Amino acid sequence: ATAPSTPTQADAKIEISNPHKYVGRGGLKLAHALEAFSIDPSGRVGIDIGASTGGFTDVLLQRGISRVYAIDVGHGQLAWTLRTDSRVVVMEGVNARFLHGPTAGSAGEQGTQGFTTLPELGSIVTIDVAFISLTLILPAVTRVLAPQGDIVALVKPQFEAGQTLVGKGGVVRNPAVHRNVLDAVARAGKMLGLVPHGLVSSPVRGQAGNMEFLLWLRNATEAEDPSGATIEWEQAVTLALAGPAKER
């Protein structure tokens, strides 16, 4: 059976074939990026924006994160095994655009303008959001990112390109649009002092078949020019576009 609607007998024996290692298939995407970028979350404080079921959160936990703030604008989506983990701080109904660091107010406080204050900064921030551009999320991320912290963001072209550039079924198929999307997100990061350190294509396509990418950003050091990059950007984009994701 590959779909919930598959007819079965009431007394049918059910076995799970090749179960995923994580609570959500998104975990495969983040795990791939952490390996590709050699990022070790162990002993760190993480912030997972767009936690949803918790695929990214699960990866961080399995790799030894000390604490992770699982943030989502929705409610009741996070897997129970994660919700009951003492290392997970569940923050539901929170709009990530209005996140602030601990200097903005009391820990966990919801401000009158709708902002939410975190009690500490995250040394690793992961992002998997839908129906909103990363360019609108990154400004808030810089407010909660620790110095020399890492950002690993899932870039979804279908939510970054304009509606006229998204094809039938909500799928972006034009490599030129993919490239323009990646350039735009990287450019938005640079304007905030974030330098691209890595880019890979996702090993798993989006639900509708969209090709997706994982972008690694860090705060620029004193020796780095935010307008530049520590990787050869054009080459990185070309390699990412040449590595089609595998359906799983």
User: In angstroms, what is the radius of gyration?
Assistant: 18 Å
| Number of separate strands | 9
Q: How many structurally independent domains?
A: 1
Task: Just give the CATH class.
Answer: Alpha Beta
Strands side by side in the biggest sheet? 3-2-1-6-7-9-8
CATH topology (fold) name:
Rossmann fold
Briefly note the structural class of the backbone.
alpha/beta
Q: How does the major sheet shape up?
A: 7 strands, mixed
Mean pLDDT: 88
The proportion of strand residues reads: 15-25%
Which parts are unreliable, with pLDDT below 50 for 5 consecutive residues or more?
none
Q: What is the number of helical segments per DSSP (H or I, 4+ residues)? A: 7
Indicate the overall shape: globular
Ends distance? 15 Å
Known CATH architecture: 3-Layer(aba) Sandwich
Query: Would you list the SSEs in sequence order as H and E?
Result: HEHEHEEEEHEHHEEH
CATH superfamily: Vaccinia Virus protein VP39
Name the helicity range.
25-40%
Quaternary structure type: single chain
Structure description:
This protein has 248 residues and is of the alpha/beta class. It has one domain (26-242): Rossmann fold (3-Layer(aba) Sandwich). The chain has seven helices and nine strands, in the order αβαβαββββαβααββα. The chain has helices spanning 26-37, 55-62, 80-83, 134-144, 157-160, 175-191, 233-242; strands at 45-49, 67-72, 88-92, 99-100, 116-117, 122-127, 145-155, 194-201, 213-219. A seven-stranded mixed beta sheet has the order 3-2-1-6-7-9-8, with helices on both faces. Strands 4-5 form a two-stranded parallel ribbon. Helix 1 (26-37) crosses helix 2. The longest helix is centred in the C-terminal third of the chain and has 17 residues, at 175-191. The mean pLDDT is 88.
